[in-house]
């Protein structure tokens, strides 16, 4: 007795529903991890008396090192990729130092800037990526693609003028962190471009994290000499201190893991759209939570920047399609 078409279609429909539910859950977790770690960083560094951005970054990297090892070696989320040469290790260590600079700079900026303005500056990453790609590799995009970057920068300039809590040092650190993040992505494409040296983002994090801890530990001891005394004191005064640090560090790893999984299960265009929306959601939540004052000029500037990022991604995608024809 043969099965009817309706019966054959049923398992496919169920499978499609499960896949949709899995992807929706993954995106929610990605958003929660990214926004959560950002808001917790802000809370710890600005509202909680924990003024140690280097040590906080070291906690993040320590969690990433331990949890990456567990995820890859024991849970086998992705296959373990081995380092094949001393040259490859030096390249990974170089990326790790640049990555440390970007995360530390971003955390320092959160001590001085509102999350909303921090996100506006962070949205200029495509501008720095295009700039470094041209400077390092002489790779040119179409002029219309570069033209789309004008509102990206213009929006931040406008938002800066309308930001009530503008602080120059915080702005410089945020801009430096954004540039370092873009430089790391360009550098990664160059240093690990050969087939024998390519690592997926989870294996790269596995090897980068311990190097980052080794760099950040002496930096924290020298630049934040009273970090352990103050941290222990805060731990005694505030019973949730250690829980907040632990949750914050686990979220930092979760943000990396879910970013990898969302990239794996969606397209590059979907990821870009979701990323732009994530920044906007983070801004709204931060304003509601921290009650930082915003102006119409600031909101307008941020909106122009986000629209510029969307336009840049779209023009780049279209010209890539034309080139491939």
SSE diagram, text form:
Layout: H1 5-47, H2 53-74, H3 86-112, H4 115-122, H5 125-137, H6 143-147, H7 150-161, H8 168-191, H9 201-223, H10 227-237, H11 241-265, H12 268-290, H13 296-324
Helix pairs in contact: 1-3, 1-11, 1-12, 2-3, 2-9, 2-11, 3-8, 3-9, 4-12, 5-8, 7-13, 12-13
Explain what this protein looks like in three dimensions.
82% of the residues lie in helices and 0% in strands. It is an all-alpha fold. It has one domain. The radius of gyration is 21 Å and the shape is globular. The mean pLDDT is 88. It holds the Pfam family TPT. InterPro entries: EmrE-like, Sugar_P_trans_dom, TPT_transporter. Its main location: membrane.
Helix/strand class: mainly alpha
The proportion of residues forming helix, as a percent range, comes to over 70%
> What is the number of helices?
13
Total separate domains: 1
- Name the poorly predicted regions: none
Average pLDDT works out at 88
SSE string: HHHHHHHHHHHHH
Separation, N- and C-terminal Cα atoms: 49 Å
**Count of beta strands:** 0
Basic shape = globular
Describe the largest sheet. none
Estimated share of beta-strand residues: under 5%
* Global Rg: 21 Å
InterPro entries: EmrE-like (IPR037185), Sugar_P_trans_dom (IPR004853), TPT_transporter (IPR050186)
Organism: Quillaja saponaria
Keywords: Membrane, Transmembrane, Transmembrane helix
Protein name: Nucleotide-sugar transporter family protein
